[in-house]
Write a structure and sequence with these properties.
It is a single chain. The chain folds into two domains: 1-54, no CATH class; 57-125. The radius of gyration is 51 Å and the shape is rod-shaped. It contains three helices and four strands, in the order ββββααα. The strands form two sheets. Strands 1-2 form a two-stranded antiparallel ribbon. 71% of the residues lie in helices and 6% in strands. The chain has 143 residues and is mainly alpha-helical.
């Protein structure tokens, strides 16, 4: 059989596809030594990658996506905790301010209640302005 310029006979070497046989010539010996060197280099590269932990790009992409997913989940949880702490602290601040305001307004109301009670006791002794005005209107004063 003749294929690609190589004659098949006993003592022949195989071509790249390992199904064809070719006659050993000086050029083919060089090709064989190059092939052996390339094979050795491939073996060294594979061993080096296995030591370094280098992985297939598809596997690297999957691992990267998983890593990004874990990072995003952790970040969401951190943000949720931070917002919860913010709202709890804000509620405490509002509570403190509002309790102070409530106490102040209740105090002012109590003072006014005391003044109003005192005013009722003095009502017989001194007439309020509104009552005096009504009386004056009834007599025709101011017209």
């Amino acid at each position: 059989m003749i294929d690609a310029g190589f004659t098949t006979r006993e003592g022949c070497s195989f071509d790249d596809d390992l199904t064809e046989c070719r006659q050993a010539t000086e050029g083919s010996l060089v090709d064989a030594s190059r092939a052996e060197a390339a094979d050795a280099e491939l073996v060294r590269m594979i061993e080096r990658r296995s030591r370094k932990g280098e992985i297939d790009p598809d596997e690297r992409t999957a691992l990267w996506q998983e890593s990004v997913g874990r990072y995003n989940a952790r970040r969401r949880e951190e943000m949720r905790v931070a917002w919860r702490e913010y709202h709890q602290a804000q509620a405490a601040r509002h509570r403190a301010v509002l309790e102070h305001l409530i106490a102040r307004h209740e105090g002012e109301a109590a003072k006014l209640m005391d003044v109003q009670r005192e005013g009722k006791a003095e009502l017989g002794a001194q007439k309020p302005n509104e009552q005096r005005w009504r009386e004056a209107q009834g007599r025709g004063v101011g017209s």
